[in-house]
Amino acid sequence: MYLRAASINIDDSVLVQKSQSGDVVAMERLIIKYQNRIFNVVLKMCGNSDDAAELTQETFVKVIESIEKFKGRSSFYTWLFRIAVNLTLNYCQRHARTATRSLDAEDMEHDGAADQVLRDLLSDERAVDPATVAQSRELCDLAMDALLKLEEPQRAVIVLRDIEDMNYTEIADVLNIELGTVRSRLSRARSNLREILEAMINEGESKHR
Amino acid sequence: MKANPNIDELLCGFVDGELPARQQTEVQRMVARDPEIGRRLRQLQNCKTLVSALPRAEAPGELLEQIKLAVERKTLLEEQAATGVHAAGVIYLLARRFVAAAAMIALLGVLGFVVYQIVAPVPGTDSQPLVARPDSPSRVEPIQPGSAPAVVADSGFSGRLEIRTATLAQADAVLKRAVGQNGLSALAVSDDAAGIRTYKLVSNRQGVSRLITSLESIWQSFDGVTLHIEEPGQFASPVTVTAVTPEQVTSIVARENTAASIETARDYAVTNAMAQRMPGREVLAIVDNDAAGVQDLVTIDDKVWITETQIETTLTPPQGEANVSLTIVLLHTR
């Protein structure tokens, strides 16, 4: 993981320097390199693909506008994600009421297979196979719904860790918080996520009865 | 198992591989010893797996183009805004400069006018004092050395000529005729019981002078003539000239301005009063005159006549259009 980050940073620093000197191609390479990862993180945080596309676009526009001011105190990678996460958190705060209402309004019907996998996941008896989760569209929707029910700061830290695969130091850098805060917030986020999933299973069982 | 925040943080760190080797060993030992901790560890691992297994979304294919368009649009808008602001700023600065220049020019104009009013030289001279010509008060010209004294303006004066006469009817007739012949008009008030006839007339200096001259033939028949003269609007006490002669009156009236008339009247008042007290009614008429200083001595039986060569020579013809308000009072002496 650290080797990957290091190699990215080396490449990034060259592209950033070229971009700062007005090299449009270098900037395009940076955009192409990170657009999917930014879009993915933003989508997992906001839950809407159109808004995620708009936020991703806004993120890169800000990067282009501010690239000359980038001093390299942190890596370009964390600087880029800091911009994206801040924009997304602002967006989530503005649309929190609407998003919650739309989720509550949804009549989430899940098939039996998804519920069983989720039940196995929460039974603590055995570890879940990631491939099984990825293949179940319903299970992914359940997981996404549960993720969106987390508070924004907890959602941000769990997305950066479990989806973007950032280490704790990078998360602290992106969110501009202490390392201990990252640990405690991530622990609470996972605990809350499990509780949300359990509540969703219980609701599903009561509906099937 | 009920979640313990401290253990959860440790377990999360273990799941994420963020613990140092010593803590990892410690967690493994705890899990092996306590099945509840082992179950909690699996819960956290499964949560992580669930989120991590979410499919990765890809950005829209046109995102790069959209970003380029957004940047171009934003740049264009900023340039337009900057251009608009720049144009507005230029207009504002030009307007400010124009107003400032106009204000400065106006200020300099006012200052120049004021300074010119104060220090502007009179045409034809550099430093001589200024006087007004009696015939044109608004015109200013320098005093010529040796010329008659003059002052700036003539405001006129008012006088009261009291004539005591034993032949009131005759004096009245002569006066009326004289007024008519000289083209004057007078307001006549008659009090026959008291033996008083009053004529109020207003004229310029020439008209009054002509009228007095017309009365010379009858003047000697008067028992006494007294002239009171005062300057209009002044608080000084009037000057009274007793036993005044027609020549004295005309000389007073004919002076070039009120101040000169008053001054002349004062001279006559003094000399006439002295003459009244002199034995034999002889008087040394002394009238200041810049030109000579010649003194004439005249002896008159009953009245004092003063012939003043110097005054005559300094007299100027009646000038100026300032009004002289003269009240002639005929008093019947019985």
Quaternary state, please?
heterodimer
| CATH-defined architecture of the largest domain in chain A | Orthogonal Bundle
Summarize the helix and strand pattern of chain A as letters: HHHHHHHHHH
Low-pLDDT ranges of chain A: 1-7, 100-108
Count of separate DSSP helical elements of chain B: 10
Q: Could you give me the name of the CATH homologous superfamily of the largest domain in chain A?
A: RNA polymerase sigma factor, region 2, helix turn helix motif
Q: Order of strands in the sheet with the most strands of chain B?
A: 4-5-10-3-6-7
Share of β-strand residues of chain A: under 5%
How many strand elements of chain A? 0
Name the shape of chain A in a single word.
elongated
Quote the average pLDDT of chain A: 83
Q: Compute the number of strand runs of chain B.
A: 10
Summarize the structure.
By secondary structure, chain A is an all-alpha fold. Chain A has helices spanning 2-20, 24-46, 49-66, 76-105, 112-123, 130-135, 137-148, 152-162, 168-175, 179-208. Chain A is built from ten helices and no strands.
Could you walk me through the main structural features you see in this protein, from its secondary elements to its overall organization?
The complex is a heterodimer of chains A (209) and B (334). Chain A is built from ten helices and no strands. Chain A is mostly helical and 209 residues long. Chain A folds into two domains: 105 residues, RNA polymerase sigma factor, region 2, helix turn helix motif (Rna Polymerase Sigma Factor, Chain: A, Orthogonal Bundle); 103 residues, Winged helix-like DNA-binding domain superfamily/Winged helix DNA-binding domain (Arc Repressor Mutant, subunit A). In chain A, helix 2 packs antiparallel against helix 3, helix 2 runs parallel beside helix 4 and helix 7 crosses helix 10. The longest helix of chain A is centred in the middle third of the chain and has 30 residues. Chain A is elongated, with a radius of gyration of 19 Å. The N and C termini of chain A lie far apart (47 Å). The N terminus of chain A is likely disordered. Chain B is built from ten helices and ten strands. In chain B, a hairpin with a 2-residue loop joins strand 1 and strand 2. Chain B is rod-shaped, with a radius of gyration of 57 Å. About 20% of the residues of chain B have low confidence. At the A-B interface, helix 2, helix 3, helix 6, helix 7 and helix 8 of A face helix 1, helix 3 and helix 4 of B.
